[in-house]
Input
Amino acid sequence: MMFLLITIGNERYGIDVSHVVKVIPPVAVKEIPCTPDYISGLLNFHGHPIPVIDINYLYVQQPVSIYLGSRIIVVDLMHSKKEEGAESILLGILAEGVTEAIHIDQKSLVNSGIDMTDRSFVNRVVMNDKEIIQLVNLANLVPDQWKSKILQANTLLADEVLDQ
Amino acid sequence: MAGISSIIGSLSVRTKINLIITLIFVSVVILVTIFTMQRTEERVLELVTDHTKSITNFYFDSLNTMMLTDTMDQRSILRKKILQDPDVLEARVIRGQTVVDQHGPGLPEEYPVDEYDRRGLLGEEIIFTEQRNSGRVVTVLTPIRATSDGDTNCLACHNVPSGTVNGLVRVSYSLADIDENMAQEMWAAALANLLLMIIGLFLANFLLRRWISEPLAGLIKVVKRRANGDSSARAIVNSSDEVGRLGAALNTMSDKLNDSFRREQEVARDLRHKVDVLLKVVSRAAKGDLETSIPISKEGAIGELGVGLEIMLGNLRTLMDERRTAVEELKEKVGVILGVVTRAAEGDLTGKVTVSGDDSIGQLAMGVQRMVDRLNALVTQVQQSGIKVTSSATQIAATAKQQEATFTEQAATINEIVATATEISATNKDLVLTMDEVSSVSEQTAAAANSGQGGLAKMEETMLQVVNASASIANKLEVLNEKANNINTVVTTITKVADQTNLLSLNAAIEAEKAGEYGVGFAVVATEIRRLADQTAGATLDIEQMVKEVQTAVSAGVMSVDKFSKEVQNSVTVVSDVGHDLTQIIEQVQALTPRFESVHEGMQFQAQGAEQIKQAIVQLNNAAQQTVESLNQSSSSIDHLNDAARGLQQGVSQFKVLSTHEKESEVI
Output
């Protein structure tokens, strides 16, 4: 398995690359009024507007600083259900230290050992050179009901973009 | 002039009047004759000119008639007729060029012969007078113009423009006969005038003698006789004109003179008698006989004089008696006074004048008494004064001795002063030398300061160069900073490229992972690329660090250069301040030099002054010595004075005077 490494606060996290559509530079996003602080705004991704969340804010309540390694990772939330014919839901994750992707043996994946609910952001951890890498639970990154909202928003924004 | 006026003065009245009348007559005759002659000549000339003009007109009119009657061939007859008058000397008709062209040249006398003819043919009317052997001759030249507006239309026959001069008539007329007749008449008139004048002169002469000369001669004879004492001389008056009235007035004057002369003779005789009587009385009185009466009447001025004389004689008698008594009294008083005065003369001043009275002798006596008293007092005073003078002289002599000693001391002191003044003079000279040295030292100082100023100016220049150099260094550092910034930019670009490369490699790795087995090789490449990008990023970090260090160093360099530059500028300011101070020093030192000179001059003046003081003191010394000499002289004079006082005392002691005591008792 391959994981894309990111930094949140002082910790390293990993994202399963199978969900990753593309990594792009931290371009300017269109801010949306009256949204929670962790939503950065909308990104025009190949003609489709996709919401972008600030994962730092979501995890440690600190906004992402724009360094060289700060990037937007476009993921498909519905990747695992693709075979069931589900429509892909694209989401942009703004994160720091996105410079490295590592191969991890699937066997080295372990549960964190901490009481993990279904709603937790992290479900498993992996050891890499004595470093603990927590794996981001993309499924719980946004609430399910938000996914449909995001979809709706996507459509609406697509219309708006078209209008414009 | 004086000669002429004296000659005229000696002539008689009759001759003078005759001369004046003759002069007037002759002038009138000459003037009238000359004036008449000129006027007549002018008139005659005018008349003859008019007459000659008439002849020319007549000649041409006749010729014109001949032209019209076509008898021009006989024109010589006309000319002969005109020339028959003996006074007409010349009568000619001259043909103009137009007529010559139409009718041929004509007769020989019809050619123009002189300048007048040619001028006449040009249209000028000429009248001139000339003097020939026979006398005056008037010539008139009248040009003939062809016209159509006169009595005859000339243009009918003559084919010429109107106004053309076709010919000329010339006539000369002699005035010889007329002039001769006129001259004869003039001479006759002059002779008649002369005759009339001579007759008038004789008549005037006769009347003058009859009316003025002869009566005046009679009067002169009478006056001469009266002057020679003939009181019976009388003028014969037989006319009532001015001469007659003069004779009558002469007679009246003579009568009045005779009367007054007789009266004066009588008065003089009476006066002489009375004066003789008075003279006798006076001469008797002069001989001492005052007992005389005057036997003349007491009337008139001489009578009053006689009475006055009598009274005067009486008064004289009384006066003589009184005089005699007074002289006796006087003699007595004078004797007394004389006694007192004689005693006084012998030295006895104790005498008393006993005479008294208000008259002059009484006053004389009082005066003598006062004189004797005063003399008494004076001699007493002189005696006392003599004593005093003697003692004073002695004192003066002592004082003079003292003064002499004092002057000798003064002389010594003056000598000391002279020595001191000489010293002052010498010291001043030394001072002058010192001042000269000081002056030269100050000049050297000024020169040194000048050179110091030059050095400072050079230093300032060098400093300015340093400032410029540091400024250029700062500029270069600035450039270096800029370059470092450029490097930074490049590094940033490289970093961005590395970042991009990293991103690309990530995406590539992800894609390769997704491709599964097919992407393994690509995944390796992607990993390599990512590693390269990471290395690049690390290298750029190093570069960035180094560039930052360089930039820090550069800015530190810029700051220190700025600081240095400021310090150098401060130094420049200090240097220019020092230069300014030096300039002031130079100015002050240069200002000192004239002061030194003035001090120098002052010292020289002082030296001169000391010299002058010295000379003055020497003169003073001389004067003091002279004073000592004169003191010696005065000392001997005082001795003389002493002797004289003693002599005086002896002399005065011969006088016998009243003692003070006696005087007081006398006053009481």
